[in-house]
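Re: the pair you flagged

First of the two:
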Amino acid sequence: MAEILRTRAPFSTEKTYPAKLRSVHERPVINRRSPVCLLRLEFEIYSSLENCTDGVLHNTGLLASQDVLVGPGIRMVADDRVASFANALGLKGGWDDPQSWLKLVKKPTWVTIQFAPKEPPECRNPFRRIEAFNPDGYEINDNWPPVGDWGRVKDAAEAFDMHGSTMRRRLNKLEKDYGDELVRYTSGRHRRINLRLLSKLLY
């Protein structure tokens, strides 16, 4: 199983990522005095459809999550954002019942996610669009090997099975957009690559 990481590194806003619902759990709220509860939906992110040229969806080892308030008195059905999540996850009714959401993990549930640009203060990418997804016809690779944090260009090429010159061209292009989040330089002007971020940008 790929290592599951939480990261503030940006997801691409131009790609569509298949994702599998990993967990639904209640978040603690210190001033809770009502049946309303805060739930967190966590998704495992797989390689983007745009980069899936071999029919294999690779587990990137990364998570994306969304919180939702659920309970009586909340006009869930009138909320388009809640409706998009409920419909994508196949939740037919009981939107105001926390148990309906918690039971979603009892069966494999897949969606596709498109992300909006990251926002302060947490600098995470909010969900821009979520839809139901059927992974039939794809091979699912959950053994995607986790990589270290930072490495050389050579390490990046080897980790992602890419020719060195091809990797350098990709890095030159990506560096313009992601700067020192992706590439940093040693005192000798050798590049060090954020391999975890690179895995998201490539896949």
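Second of the two:
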Amino acid sequence: MATELSITILDRLSSVLPKLILKRIYTRVRLDQQVLIDTRSSNPIIFYLSTHVPVLNAWFTVTNMTNLKWKIHDFSAEIWLGQPLATATCHDRPPDISRKTRDDVFTKCELNEFQVNRAKEWKDRQNKGQGDNVTIHVNARLESTVGLIEFKTTLENRPVLVQ
């Protein structure tokens, strides 16, 4: 009976101990410094207004500088053109974001008539030199051996293409 109890305790400790150690090593501050989310360098945000169904496509990069492997659970981006316009959600995610790598994440949002009109107005103001700043609020939930972690990032003054 004592051996069965000790085996059960050792088994539980061996399954929980690595996660506790990793949580001590990878603190929230350290993860925020080593998992970076930004827009793609060329044409990160494109509004396609002349298609049958107007859409917003946005590309982001997730840079993993940790020794952990991450999996994307949820990834969304709120696009603000002066005020909130659209929320793009992840459709094309990498299977895993490996150690010390950078991977692309694709987000998309179908636009309604109101959003199309606002994007056209923004483009007209931009052509006149009066355009508002573009702000993107990114909310990403990534999972690794330390658990499910939520990363929130605000990106400002990113290039936008309206076609």
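The chain has three helices and nine strands.

-B.
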